[in-house]
């Protein structure tokens, strides 16, 4: 079994799509190990998106992710990292995400793409420590 960090970004919370995201996670057979709604501060945003520091959209991405509450969840199951990325769809909600995925069904713009899921075991480990430091291994 594997764990991944899932976020419903401020656009998803604002639009009332938290239930839809959780529902799809549960229907796939993945389990919720922890979950809470939180306001992300600038420091956490910078750490979470450190790999994008210096890119043209970095500042705008930080503003967006700190603009309203985010649902943060630890999602668990066999191949949970890939399984959630399949549910989410590709980063660009129109060109990459397939219809039937969360982004394919509910998003239009790359920045406002509804959800985040860790992209590798290394990212998952780093992100889970950052967002859920007290979680048991
Ligand atoms: P996430 O890490 O949120 O799951 P991802 O792994 O699919 O997304 P990344 O390439 O890591 O995509 O980009 C992280 C986030 O930065 C994207 O989800 C999106 O919100 C934002 N982003 C990426 N590329 C752009 C861009 N060209 N313009 C604006 N925002 C972008």
UniProtKB/TrEMBL annotation:
Keyword Chaperone: no
Cofactor annotation: Mg(2+)
Annotated TM spans: none
GO CC field: cytoplasm
Cell compartment(s), UniProt: Cytoplasm
Known catalytic reactions: a ribonucleoside 5'-diphosphate + ATP = a ribonucleoside 5'-triphosphate + ADP; a 2'-deoxyribonucleoside 5'-diphosphate + ATP = a 2'-deoxyribonucleoside 5'-triphosphate + ADP
Main location: cytoplasm
InterPro entries tied to this protein: NDK-like_dom, NDK-like_dom_sf, Nucleoside_diP_kinase, Nucleoside_diP_kinase_AS
Gene Ontology terms, MF aspect: ATP binding; metal ion binding; nucleoside diphosphate kinase activity
Chain's role: Major role in the synthesis of nucleoside triphosphates other than ATP. The ATP gamma phosphate is transferred to the NDP beta phosphate via a ping-pong mechanism, using a phosphorylated active-site intermediate.
Name under which the protein is recorded: Nucleoside diphosphate kinase
Gene: ndk
